[in-house]
Specification:
This protein is an alpha+beta fold. It has a single domain, classed as Hypothetical protein apc22750. Chain B (Translation Initiation Factor IF3). The chain is 32% helix and 30% strand. The chain is built from two helices and five strands. Strands 1, 2, 3, 4 and 5 form a five-stranded mixed β-sheet that branches.
């Protein structure tokens, strides 16, 4: 009987663990952590690469995550995307929050990625 009880406990706990994991904000990659985000124009000598959009939330997203965390998720996504295209500076717009059924469920932030010759401050 003890084995069955442990097995049932494991199956009951699995959805909770999956839900908590789905609601976490992603970490920055080591490359993404080196990307500077700013509302200001890039320093002189930077080359524009492309426009990017970072997303936070979505499935299981906003009902269990604070707005600040959704924005952090979107900013992390934007920095990681910028690093993937070789950028080290992103001039970003104000993040926007989206929702449905009375709750905030997503955050989005767009920006222009640049490659700058010197590390941005």
């Amino acid at each position: 009987m003890g084995f069955r009880r442990r097995l049932l406990s494991l199956f009951a706990l699995a959805p909770v663990v999956a839900l908590v994991a789905a609601c976490s904000t992603p970490d920055l990659t080591p490359e993404g952590a080196r990307v500077t985000l700013s509302r200001n124009a890039p320093p002189a000598g930077c080359q524009e690469i492309k426009h990017l959009v970072g997303h936070g939330g979505g499935t299981f997203g906003g009902e269990y995550i604070a707005n600040d965390d959704l924005i952090e998720y979107a900013m992390n996504d934007l920095r990681n995307e910028a690093a993937e295209v070789g950028a080290n500076y992103v001039q970003h717009d104000t993040p926007t929050l989206g929702g449905g059924s009375g709750t905030t469920t997503t955050a989005t932030v767009s920006g222009t990625a640049f490659r700058c010759p010197d590390p941005a401050p």
